Amino acid sequence: MKLWLPLCAAALFADDLWLRNGRVWTGDASRPWTESVLVRGNKIEAVGTNADVAKQAKGSRVIELNGRLTIPGFNDAHMHFLGGSLGLSQIDLNGICTLETMQKAVADFAAKHPGTGWLHGRGWEYVCLPQGRLPRKEDLDAVVKDRPVFLSAYDGHTAWANSKALALAGITKPTVFNGYGEVVKDANGEPTGALTEGAMGLVRRLVPVATRAEKLAAMEQGLRLMASLGITSLQNANGNMDELDLYNELIRSNKLSVRASLAMSIGPMESEASLNDFATLHTKYPGPHLRVASVKMALDGVIESYTAAMLEPYSNKNDTSGKSAWTQEQFNKTAAIVDKLGLQIYTHAIGDRGVRMALDGYEAVRRANGPRDARHRIEHIETIHPQDLSRFAALGVLPSMEPIHADPATIEVWSAAIGPERTRLGFAWRSIEKAGGRLVFSSDWPASISVDPIRGLHNAVNRRTTTGLPPNGWIPEERVSVETALRAYTANAAYASHEEKIKGTLQRGRLADIVVLSQDLFKIDAMNIHKTRADMTIFDGRVVYTRNP
Asked: Are 140 and 105 contained in the same domain?
């Protein structure tokens, strides 16, 4: 049984909270462990032993932890919350890993949602298709011919369309996409039904857009999911003014049960006037519930579809090394303007050339504008050249990475594309940490197989599937400790949004965002981490979720 509590029920828990008799990991290096936390209002009043806190806790509502591990609320430092929330009511192919079962899921959804309209969703994985090939229109035509179908891959960088969708979009043999991406064609020049990067827009533009009311309802559903997973903060890695307005509406209706930090999306042709407009938003939205102080730039694509920018050609497609969506000059110029405006930059870079371009750009910005505590970031970093490992610490750039993307069950196609030599530094968390980088972890939801931070922790610590295969892990040298992984999801994530002084650790005066877990991650067999659940989530001093066994 689960208990969902919207923030409008705050009066129900207006009392101060005394969490006692627990194993409290504070995240505070000077005092990492204790047993009791007192919450007064929306802040932490005291942290210490039961005896110490008892002196101040008279009249407080007691929550018995019974030895359970209690930690700061999880902070997912890179996700796409609106898209993920909308996807909760669409075709969901996550975790389905044969063509036949994916076809059945599409057919079943179509049967449950009759009509002539579009069917859309996401979640298919490259590794789940026969022979590691990209999906084909015929695969979908076999189960749905009379309605258009459009399905994004789990990473959001490739789409799968049936013949009806391609026909409605006017995509035929002569169609050429000249932007960043590709209409994939077969040996005869016929569109296969796979579209990469910007070419996805040729079909996506026809998919009906959700109404404002539908978006708000979806976000409320997404917030309930976040609470159930112990996520009390999120950093939205894309954004626009319409999405910002939705967050404002959730605040006005007292329903926003996470602290949200938004990065506004920009492209190579962004005007300086727009950048100035974004800078003014920081004054208006400084947090702690809603913060706007960043922009998002995407340098490349993904390895599985050969769109990530690599220093050398792909191992199994040596006629390409990928392509950057920006030139180095464009990136350096725009980054310098953004930095001078006092904004933070998130840069999507997956290939080793993309990562180097981002680092080179940040170094150029520092030369042009001088050093400051910008905390610019690189998102994903799935491959990296050894010479670039130490540059994160040297430049003060944050490596923002998703352990869930390194699930060994999903990397077969990935590894084949870049070959064994480059794979050795795939998802190089430990190497970056040893070189002085401050790791920041997230899910990239919905561009991932799971939004659950516990699944990410499991991958970060084990680099093995939940069944334990392969027995020695996948590139086990890049595993990190439980404490490193927890810090990357809490204190370091707060640092990544310039909010480490108000959240991310359990200390007096910090905001009361707390999670009680069902298992002690520090004591159990690491291969059982994935079985852990959030037993209770406290946001802003209020219990917003409890799980009853």
From this structure: yes
